[in-house]
Design a protein that fits this description.
The complex is a heterodimer of chains A (401) and B (231).
Chain A (H helix, E strand, L loop, with lengths): L2 H11 L1 H36 L4 E4 L4 H9 L11 H9 L3 E13 L2 E6 L18 E4 L7 E4 L1 H7 L6 E2 L2 E2 L5 H5 L10 E7 L10 E4 H7 L9 E6 L2 H13 L4 E3 L1 H40 L1 H13 L4 H42 L9 H17 L1 H8 L3 H5 L4
Parallel strand pairs in A: 3-9, 5-8
Antiparallel strand pairs in A: 1-10, 1-11, 2-3, 2-7, 2-10, 4-8, 5-9, 6-8
Helix pairs in contact in A: 1-11, 2-9, 2-11, 2-12, 9-12, 11-12, 11-13
Chain B lengths: L4 E11 L5 E12 L4 E6 L5 H8 L7 E6 L2 E2 L5 H11 E4 L11 H12 L4 H14 L15 H12 L6 E5 L7 H18 L2 E5 L3 H6 L2 E5 L4 E4 L4
Parallel strand pairs in B: 3-8, 3-9, 6-7, 7-8
Antiparallel strand pairs in B: 1-2, 1-4, 4-5, 9-10
Classes of the chains: A alpha+beta (401), B alpha/beta (231).
């Protein structure tokens, strides 16, 4: 019988103790890992979602708010900017494309985004395929025609040809929800297209022409909420950025910068959780040690018996270390599974709420963290192993031992 | 004939819990021939168990020499002693000392594992055969917790025989058994050692065991050796 088999046998014999120790390790790993995975998944989801947006011009105010309501369709709009600024940007030779965004209405809480067909041509980089692709139907060509994001279509249960009436404001008012949104707009919207999923927040948008938004609010050529600008080059981007920000009527933001600040804030929270995770993992290591020490009285006798049969010290120590290894490995694997499951659960909740798909993958950092936990478990087994090494055989074989 | 065990001027000292030196065993001379059955008697604390543990290489000598089958125990490294113990000594304990998480068969198999003399495939068959020999063939897959005292000691005897050792040490093997079981276990032990021409060194208080031995070694303040009429 090999030390590995003996270790497995010992773990089976002390099943309750083994199970509890494995559970503590697994919970420690799951807590630590899910923090890492959720943060990483959300970061990647946000990065992916913001990739097609080089620069956003909007009303003066909170830059984060401007990014949040243009890219993530969250938060209330900062305000509007003059239509002339849009026209200026559209004709500026340094600008490759200027796409207007008009927010103002919603249907059951899903935002109606007024824009132009150029919006659907946005790309992460010039050589990449368009960020959006049509799954069904066509783009809007007339007023009050809408194209639905994949998430909005699914959650609202709307199909091509369906009609609905939107309400004022970017969020659903309680009375609107109760009155089934007949609201103030007499003219209904008609679904003419549904987009393929992008796994981003824009999946939750309802897209129509900017003229429709103006028409719904009774103006011929109204203001816009934001302009998405793709410059011809980096030099142009920086100049436009400075010019707009030195003006009194608008601000220009680069989403990458704003998200960098957001990530830095997230990082602080993550660090706090990370510290908590270390405490949990340390507790798991102490549990492994206590679990082994808890069985030390009966283990001393077993070691003495094995040694009296001719087992070497290194054999009995390797049995203990194998036990620790198996408990650590099972705990780590179980914890990794639990961590991924909980991160997936949070990811699904985040996606339902914001459209940002944050499903965690496997990261190199994760593997090294898991190996570290395993090493920590092994380390916590060294003291009990030392006690096993020092067992006095003759004394522990005696009937009274 | 070369003796299987030769002891001269053996002294074993321990430290008492309050740090004072304590002589646990003082035995000027003992020689045992192959196949002999020796009983070691003496009052509690006279060093019976210590003597068996010295022969098994489990206790360090403070002075003197112990030579088993031509090899001096004091001169062996720890690893050599481990191997020597696995191959040369079979040990039957008063409190059975079977591993609780292992079946009767596995307890016997473990002894073979450390000797490493037999291929793994053979070990299984031999362990089953030995258990059958001691009347435990029907209890191979039972754990110690499922066996009676007499049965536990039978498994203990099978385990002691696992590696065909030339010496079996038995420390009060019947002390924890009722009279009927004690008699049966003792018969089995004697029968087995005679059948295999194994040397048996038996520490006991039991006068009936003393009577059946070839020789008695009495430990105490004054040690003496008495040869029985049978010898």
């Amino acid at each position: 019988m090999l030390p590995v088999e003996m270790a497995l046998r010992n773990l089976r014999v002390r099943l309750l103790q083994t199970g509890l120790t494995v559970l503590v390790i697994a919970l420690g790993v799951a807590v630590a890992l899910s923090v890492l995975l959720i943060a990483q998944g959300v970061k990647e989801g946000i990065k992916r979602a913001s990739a097609p947006f080089d620069m956003i011009i909007g009303a003066k105010g909170s830059a984060t708010q401007l990014v949040m309501n243009t890219i993530f369709l969250q938060d209330i709009p900062v305000g509007n900017i003059p239509h002339d600024l849009y026209l200026f940007m559209k004709t500026d030779p340094r600008v490759q494309s200027a796409i207007p965004i008009g927010l103002g209405d919603n249907y059951q809480g899903f935002r109606v985004v007024g824009t132009t067909p150029a919006y659907f041509e946005m790309r992460e980089k010039p050589t990449a395929p368009p960020y959006f692709a049509l799954d069904q139907g066509r783009l809007f060509t007339a007023e009050f025609e809408v194209v639905l994001g994949a998430g909005a279509a699914r959650q609202l249960g709307l199909e091509l040809g369906d009609q609905f009436r939107a309400g004022h404001g970017v969020v659903a008012a309680v009375e609107e929800a109760e009155e089934d949104h007949d609201a103030h707009h007499a003219r209904p919207y008609e679904v003419v297209g549904i987009l393929a999923p992008t796994a981003g927040p824009l999946d939750l948008g309802i897209y129509t022409s900017i003229e429709t938004v103006w028409e719904a609010h009774g103006v011929l050529e109204g203001d816009v909420t934001a302009i998405i600008v793709r410059p011809q080059g980096l030099g142009g981007l920086m100049r436009i950025y400075q010019e707009v920000n030195s003006s009194r009527e608008a601000q220009a933001v680069m989403p990458g910068q704003i998200l960098g600040q957001l990530f830095s804030l997230m990082g602080q929270g993550q660090q706090a959780f990370g510290a908590l995770s270390y405490v949990v993992l340390l507790m798991a290591a102490i549990t492994v040690m206590l679990s082994l020490y808890g069985t030390m009285a009966e283990r001393r006798r077993e070691v003495a018996i094995l040694r009296s049969l001719g087992a070497r010290r290194r054999t009995v120590i390797s049995v203990v270390l194998w036990e620790v290894f198996f408990m650590g490995l099972t705990g780590v694997l179980l914890g990794a599974g639990l961590g991924h499951l909980s991160a997936l659960g949070v990811g699904l909740a985040v996606q339902a709420q914001t459209g940002v798909a944050s499903f965690p993958g496997f990261y190199l950092a994760e593997v090294s963290a898991l190996v570290t936990v395993l090493a920590l478990s092994m380390l916590s087994g060294l003291l009990p192993a030392r006690a096993v090494y020092r067992v006095e055989v003759a004394r522990n074989l005696a009937p009274s031992a | 004939m070369e003796s299987v065990l030769s002891i001269s001027d053996l002294v074993v000292r321990f430290r008492s819990p309050d740090g004072l030196p304590l002589t646990a065993l003082d035995l000027p001379e003992l020689t045992v021939q192959p196949g002999e059955v020796i009983t070691v008697a003496g009052s509690s604390g006279s060093g019976k168990t210590t003597l068996l543990n010295v022969i098994a290489g489990l206790v360090e000598l403070s002075a003197g020499s112990v030579v088993v089958q031509g090899r001096s125990i004091g001169a062996m490294s720890e690893t050599q002693r481990d191997r020597f113990r696995a191959r040369t000594i079979g040990y039957v304990h008063q409190s059975f000392n079977l591993l609780p998480g292992y079946t009767a068969l596995e307890n016997v198999l473990l002894a073979m594992t450390f000797a490493g003399d037999r291929p793994r495939r053979e070990q299984q068959g031999r362990a089953a055969e030995l258990l059958d020999r001691v009347g435990m063939g029907h209890r191979l897959s039972h754990r110690p917790g499922q066996l009676s005292g007499g049965e536990l000691q039978r498994v203990g005897i099978a385990r002691a025989l696992a590696n065909d050792p030339p010496i079996i040490l038995a420390d009060e093997p019947t002390a924890n058994l009722d009279e009927r079981n004690a008699r049966q276990v003792l018969e089995l032990l004697y029968e087995t050692v005679r059948e295999r021409r194994v040397t048996l060194i038996l520490a006991t208080h039991d006068p009936t065991l003393i009577e059946r031995a070839d020789r008695l070694v009495r430990l105490g303040q004054v040690w003496e050796e008495a040869r029985h009429a049978a010898g």
